[in-house]
Amino acid sequence: MGINAFGWIGISSASSFPSLCLFNSVRSFGGSIIWINSTLLLQKLVPNKILGRVLSFDFAVTMFCDTMVSFATGIRIDSGISTRTVALGSAGLMGILWVFWSSYHIARMGAA
Question: Contact, 39 vs 55, CB < 8 A?
Answer without folding.
Answer: yes
